Amino acid sequence: MSKILYKEQLSENVFKMRLEAPLIAEERKAGQFIILQIDEEFGERIPLTIADADKEEGSITIIFQVVGLTTDELSRLNVGDNIPVLVGPLGNPTHIDKYGTVVCVGGGIGVAPLHPIAQAYKNAGNKVIIIIGARNKELIIMEEEMRKIADELIVCTDDGSYGRKALVTEPLKEICERNPKPDRAIAIGPPIMMKFCAETTRPYNVYTEVSLNTIMVDGTGMCGGCRVDVGGQIKFVCVDGPEFDAHKVDFDNMMARLTEFKDIEEEKHQCYLESLAEAKIIENEEGEEE
Amino acid sequence: MYRTPEELQQTAHNLFEEYLPKIDALKNKDRIRIPVQEMPSQDPKERVCNLEEVAIGYTEEEARIEAMRCIQCPTQTCVRDCPVHINVPVFIDHVAHGKYQEAANVIKEASLLPAICGRVCPQETQCQKDCSVGKVFKTVDKSVSIGRLERFVADWERNTGVVQLPHVKPDTGKKVAVIGSGPAGLVVAADVRREGHSVTIFEAFHKLGGVMRYGIPEFRLPNNIIDQEIDSLRKMGVEFKTNFVVGRTRKLTDLLEKDGYDAAFVGTGAGLPLFMGIDGENLVGVFSANEYLTRANLMRAFDKKHADTPIYPSKIVAVLGGGNVAMDAARMSLRLGAEKVYVVYRRTQKEMPARKEEVEHAMEEGIEFRFLQNAKRILGDEKGRVRAIECLKYELGEPDQSGRRRPIPIEGSEFTIDVDTVIVAIGNGSNPLISQTTPEIKTNKWGNIIVDENQKTSMDRVYAGGDIVLGAATVILAMGEGRKAAAAINEMLAKDIETGESKKTVDVN
Predict the structure, then answer these.
(1) Yes or no, beta carbons of B273 and A222 under 8 Å apart
(2) Last residue of a domain, one of A90, A121, A146
(3) What is the ipTM of this complex?
């Protein structure tokens, strides 16, 4: 059980929460994730990356986007509410070393998990170039936090409403063309963005890591739902990852697998929204009667 | 052929009337003449639509008549072949005489979880394998139904509401960490707690029971039975910490060095589901049996109305494999609404590792077995979803190392079966979490923890047992290993207490 200590809405569908989790806060390292459940009996387990942790407070920070039933329900909880199931930290920590220049690319909500990794690269003595991107200005998150770490920060939006009007792959390509080229890259964001980041750095031979967020049940290597094809081998995101060599990941297969339950998930989410709307109508009617 | 519970009950009733008056004058030849009492089960047509237990359990008359079949032979191969050595003839004699509490007490001297073992043990390869009665007829099918009787006794005790808790000795001040709440861990917890040591069970999931909860479906092992066994442990003073992944949430070495645990038992079970290594295994609609069953059982996806966890809407399912897990997955998919379910197995029915009863139940329910066939690749549609499997036909050659005849593919025999879902049930590798995060523990090349004859690992004060040591095995073998480990832990702690030597610990609190 974990209490919500803090909640903030970062944009229309993006929320930030601090959760009480002293053991996880103590153990977690950059790159790791947690799994949570809103309801112990019938809830589903969803993996979320740890954006930050505060050992003194005994808390972790998660940043999530409402994309389905559980994230929607989570977004409706408030400070003081409890999350019945919270387990972690899961997955392997990012391997941090002094490589030289590291380009960190974050797309949309992916900026949140990228933050502790970029920080760790910086602390290890790397020159850190950060690119963050989103569809529009409203969806850019954590710009200030990233600016504090970055030796160079590039912000872009698809529609040009803020920063540079470009996809993140454009500045990434330019950086790869520099002399000397960067020593390493990491990209976290929507699968399609990670796929094209991998394609962007491939011709320049810049080793690129991606952090994958796949369908998962247990998160401890038992179910195999999270498996991805990496260089022709089956790898489990929960125990072999979540980070992999971007140039070896079969993104098309991974994206197909992410749609495995799409129809049912949408249906369940729709049912939930309808039940909320119904409850609201009843509430209003009762209010009128009084 | 399916016989209704009423028919079976009537037969048993007639036999009971005939045999009871002469119960203490029965000769071996009289006993042998009593027919095996079948396990009453739900009607196959009804049970495929519910999750209720398939096997209903004996009535008193059925149990007593079956118990009268035991000739109380001196060889007692049943005791020898039981992994926890239950005194079978004695408990059976009590059942025959209607002394069920006495029977329960005998079983519980050796086994802590009889309601579970009576349901899921492979008795035909253990206690019933060399039963003298079966030997007379030269078939294990005619052995005394020890498992069914064990279940009867355990259920009787539960239903009469007088489950007696094992005696717990006064506190010793020693602490033991048990990692994993599956069958091995539960037995260790009970046996160690009885000696007065305090025990904490750490479980990664939000619910307790390990594979008995996430893997074995309710129609074979109802959740309330697991709950009851765990409740007994709780009443004995065992503590439980769920949502706690040892190795990740806290290192095993920290439990021992910082948190004051004097010993640890690793019972983390099987992990990493194996896949066939064939084309198309990552298509949408291919699941490991672990994932499929965990969604349905632990995450309650069977209850489509309430559960948030989705389950794939399958119409035609192929299950690859021939073990108990394959049977569970096939029968579960039927209950989840599949219209057609195939089990594809490359040997014949005779070589199947699944329990005979499970195979028969699956057949009664309409599952189609494709023997001497094996998937060669899985074919997908343009959206990357499963549309068919391509299979090869097989024939049996010479026996291999396992003693089973080796299946050999017949070249050019390819054919396809249209399916929308493939469930791979060919076993598990080992769970990598403890070994990844505790390099002190030595593992073999398959990642299984190496232990000595007392279940001790290469790490001081750390023991292991169950599937993490054995690879994929059974509930009762895990319990047997747990029992051995607990004895060794108790012995070690007794020595500590005797010599007054206490491990230097730093209390983090």
Answers:
(1) yes
(2) A90
(3) 0.91
